[in-house]
Design brief:
This protein has helices at about 25-40, 90-100, 115-120, 140-150, 160-165, 205-215, 230-240, 255-260, 280-285, 300, 315-325, 330-340, 345-360, and strands at about 5-10, 45-50, 60-65, 105-110, 130, 155-160, 195-200, 220-225, 245-250, 265-270, 290-295, 310. The protein is of the alpha/beta class and about 375 residues long. Strands 3-2-1-4-5-6 form a six-stranded parallel sheet, with helices on both faces. Strands 9-8-7-10-11-12 form a six-stranded parallel sheet, sandwiched between helices. The longest helix is centred in the C-terminal third of the chain and has 16 residues, at about 345-360. Bound molecules: uridine-5'-diphosphate.
């Protein structure tokens, strides 16, 4: 069946500019989505904080930028924090612009994890959809998701079932996974490389447990990612013998995958209900198996004994033992699994089906408003 071309407005994360790394996995997800939706022939307008940069293969998106102060990420706030909007905040500005353009579009797809866009949805003319990018880290966001699900469940989608299980929903969750431009990731067959870890350097990512494995094995852990919390990074470093951690910095995808692909294993240690876990798929795409805690997205991404090992949550000695068994994993199987499940084109098709389903839905629960 031919896909009807849509005009879609995308709302970027208000946590930082695209390309800064501050937005975490959402940045790469958004880029994949843009490529995939363009490939399907849709017309795209992206509203993003000024300073955002897009890769050259996204040049067909109409980029509209707005100035304003970054929103504080919910994972840095308490679960029961009230909603805080800074003076001259970028979030309301992104929404104002997107909802205005959205009046003449088929859909507005919001990628920011916050209360305001969710709450606004029933009251605006534009058809506003939300790809929820985190587990339930905020009571006000969880409540807003619940209310929106009651009003029109089709406006919400999630990356994984584990993530969606944090929310109270009025229907089965719509799960869209994620997608990657696999031509950017090169398979590296060599075994016997170093051990690696990648992600934002922040407490919810559990770097200390991976460093503990490295210390136990008397090896150096290569660490890639944005240092979001400097005190945390210093504290983790101080816990282990000098040289246990080799900070490799935040690299852009081309260089990140080149270095990551040399590892014999990636260790993934989420301390929160990880919504997806981009770095896991990126690692597998390079042929690097992953050892991870069975918590959140990683539990759905790693195939036991085929693409790596899942171990019980917070069990550091199980992590170490799994790293010692990593040569039982065939690196080719890791790449193969990613090719079968995680292309950006497949992701865009799932998003396309979700949005089309929502646009053509007959009734919504007007009693809710
Ligand atoms: N990343 C990167 N360069 C690096 C290390 C990480 O671009 O040197 C990106 C990686 O591609 C991934 C993101 O950082 O998209 C981390 O996303 P993930 O879903 O793993 O965790 P999140 O930060 O969203 O919690």
């Amino acid at each position: 069946m031919k896909t009807k071309k849509l005009k879609i407005v995308l709302v970027s994360t208000p946590i930082g500019t695209l390309g800064s790394g501050k937005g975490g996995g959402v940045e790469l997800t958004l880029i994949s989505l843009i490529k995939g939706l363009l490939h399907l022939g849709h017309e795209l307008i992206l509203v993003a904080p000024s300073g955002s940069v897009l890769p050259s293969d996204c040049k067909d998106v109409d980029l509209r930028v707005v100035d304003g102060v970054d929103q504080l990420s919910w994972q840095k706030q308490d679960f029961y924090s009230p909603v805080i909007l800074p003076a001259n905040g970028v979030l309301p500005k992104l929404l104002k612009e997107a909802l205005d353009i959205g009046k003449q579009a088929d859909a507005v797809l919001n990628m920011s994890y916050d209360w305001l866009p969710l709450w606004l949805t029933p009251f605006v003319e534009a058809k506003l959809f939300h790809l929820i990018s985190m587990g339930g880290v905020s009571k006000v966001v969880i409540d807003a998701v619940k209310e929106l699900s009651q009003y029109d469940h089709s406006r919400l989608a999630f990356h994984t079932n584990s993530q969606a299980s944090d929310y109270e929903l009025y229907g089965e969750p719509i799960i869209v996974g994620n997608g990657f431009d696999l031509s950017n990731y090169h398979f590296q067959p060599e075994v016997g490389g170093p051990i690696g870890w990648a992600g934002r350097i922040a407490p919810e990512k559990g770097l200390e447990d991976a460093a503990s494995v490295a210390a136990e094995l008397g090896e150096t852990l290569l660490v890639w990612g944005l240092i979001e919390d400097k005190n945390y990074a210093k504290e983790v470093e101080s816990l282990f013998p000098k040289g246990t951690i080799n900070w490799k910095g935040f690299l852009e995808t081309r260089n990140f995958q080149k270095e990551l692909g040399k590892c014999r294993v990636l260790i993934n240690t989420p301390k929160w209900n990880e919504a997806f876990g981009n770095v896991i798929v990126e690692s597998l795409a390079c042929g690097v198996p992953v050892v991870a805690y069975e918590r959140g997205g990683p539990g759905e991404l790693i195939k036991q004994g085929i693409t790596g090992w899942l171990v019980p949550k917070d069990d550091v000695s199980a992590l170490t033992n799994a790293v010692l068994r990593i040569n039982e994993i065939d690196r080719k199987q890791c790449r193969l699994w990613v090719e079968e499940t995680s292309s950006y084109k497949g992701f865009a098709e799932r998003i396309n089906d979700w949005i089309n389903g929502g646009i053509h839905k007959k009734s919504i629960n007007n009693e809710y408003i």
